[in-house]
């Protein structure tokens, strides 16, 4: 985008001087009362909003841009590594979650995935593996062991099945310590 703007500036052959204009000034003041720069800013916002709602098809990169990447018809202009990673792993992850928890699309979209991602960002890889195990019930509990024909009871209190919930609720001293 910046390269495209530079290209347009060079191509215009005009000297352009930048200065900061506070955005959205029309929220507190009438458009007609704003100075010229603030009015241009408001109009540019309207054009930008319009362009976003009109642009549901892939267009060529802006003139002057270098290599650009599009994912499923959408040009990616920021956080490229994250967006590529999401595009590669997102659909499979979503499919897994829908099947794993027997969720429908609406329920899936209720989860604040961005907040989960941000919260997990501060943890080490090792901690994040543990968090994934807890989120998806992959902990090596009796419940999981039963799938491999192993003992499913709680090794600490002898409860019939050591589920993830039980690991958190078991009152046994040893289990409390392990938690
Ligand atoms: Zn127990």
> Low-confidence parts, pLDDT < 50 over ≥5 residues?
none
How many β strands by DSSP? 2
Ligands (ions, cofactors included): zinc ion
What is the helix tally? 9
* The number of domains: 3
* Helix content, binned percent: 40-55%
Structural class, please? mainly alpha
The SSE order reads HHEEHHHHHHH
Rg on CA atoms, Å? 27 Å
Give the overall shape, derived from the CA principal axes.
elongated
* Main sheet specs: 2 strands, antiparallel
**Oligomerization category of the chains in this entry:** single chain
- Overall mean pLDDT stands at 89
Strand order of the largest sheet: 1-2
Cα-to-Cα separation, first versus last residue: 50 Å
Proportion in β-strands: under 5%
Write the topology of this structure:
Blueprint (H helix, E strand, L loop, with lengths): L1 H11 L23 H19 L14 E3 L2 E3 L3 H21 L4 H6 L2 H9 L3 H11 L6 H4 L18 H6 L3 H6 L1
Antiparallel strand pairs: 1-2
The structure holds zinc ion (ZN).
The site of zinc ion has 8 residues, from loops.
């Amino acid at each position: 985008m910046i390269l495209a703007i530079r290209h347009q500036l060079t191509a215009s052959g005009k000297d352009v001087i930048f200065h900061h204009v506070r955005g959205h000034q029309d929220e507190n003041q009438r458009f007609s009362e704003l100075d010229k720069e603030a009015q241009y800013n408001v109009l540019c916002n309207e054009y930008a909003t319009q362009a976003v709602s009109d642009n549901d098809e892939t267009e060529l990169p802006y003139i002057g841009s270098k290599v650009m990447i599009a994912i499923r018809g959408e040009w990616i202009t920021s956080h490229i590594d994250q967006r590529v990673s999401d595009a590669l792993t997102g659909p499979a992850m979503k499919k897994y979650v829908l099947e794993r928890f027997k969720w429908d699309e609406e329920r899936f979209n209720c989860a604040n995935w961005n907040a989960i991602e941000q919260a997990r960002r501060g943890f080490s890889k090792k901690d994040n593996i543990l968090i994934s195990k807890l989120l998806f019930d992959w902990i090596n509990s009796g419940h999981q062991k039963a799938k491999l024909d192993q003992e499913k009871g709680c090794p600490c209190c002898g409860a019939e099945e050591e589920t993830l919930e039980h690991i958190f609720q078991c009152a046994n001293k040893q289990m409390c310590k392990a938690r």
